[in-house]
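hey so u asked for the seq, here:
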Amino acid sequence: MMLLDALLAVMVGLSLGMLGGGGSVLTVPIFVYAGGFATKAAVAMSLPVVGVTSLVGALFRARSRNVDLRVAIIFGGVAMAGAYAGARIGVLLPGDVQLALLAVAMLAAAVAMFRRSARSESAPVRSAASVDTRRLVVAGLGVGLLTGVVGIGGGFLIVPALVLLMRVPMKQAIGTSLLVIAMNAAAALLGYVGRVDMSWGYVGWFTVAAVAGIIAGTRLVRFVPTRALTRAFAVLLALVALFVLVERTGLLA
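ran it, structure tokens below
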């Protein structure tokens, strides 16, 4: 099982490195079904894993100037407030409710990915100064709340938001998303520490494996067709979401 968990951790890192998201929506089910942890512990433990891994990925992408710091500060700052509030709410929710919300978020992300893959990536780029700040604040708060409640970094929501609201080029959107994810995860973790028991040893070695995956992912992404990869991962997200709904919540049973 340790080998399986390590391979799954590498997959989490690969997803973050190549798509700028997806690590957290996979980490929680992995901790629940492969690691055997309770849902609330899995949600809390996913945050440091995804946060550290995303930060490493953002640093690698910053070297190639694929991180927009201004956008990250604007979007991430608002999202951090929502993430902390969401974590305080998540502590109070039953584990099955958190998993159900996670599954719904995964299905929504899968649909968004399919739609994004069908769009042209040649849309005109505009500056951060021209963005509708009110829409950006609402989007940031929404992503942050979801991060805290169900323990996801929100990358599959952040990337489309950056592309749609701020017309950030795709490569920069992925890199910027990683930095925002790290900020969100840190804020959400503050809402769980001391309130949920976590296995820090498991978190530590899982993070090391995930970091190895994101380093590989940042190097491999230049060789893999983005559209094909996005669609394939959207299918994976949908399948995992349906599995969670059927096996854990019984909503589709």
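The radius of gyration is 16 Å. The chain has ten helices and no strands.
lmk if thats what u needed
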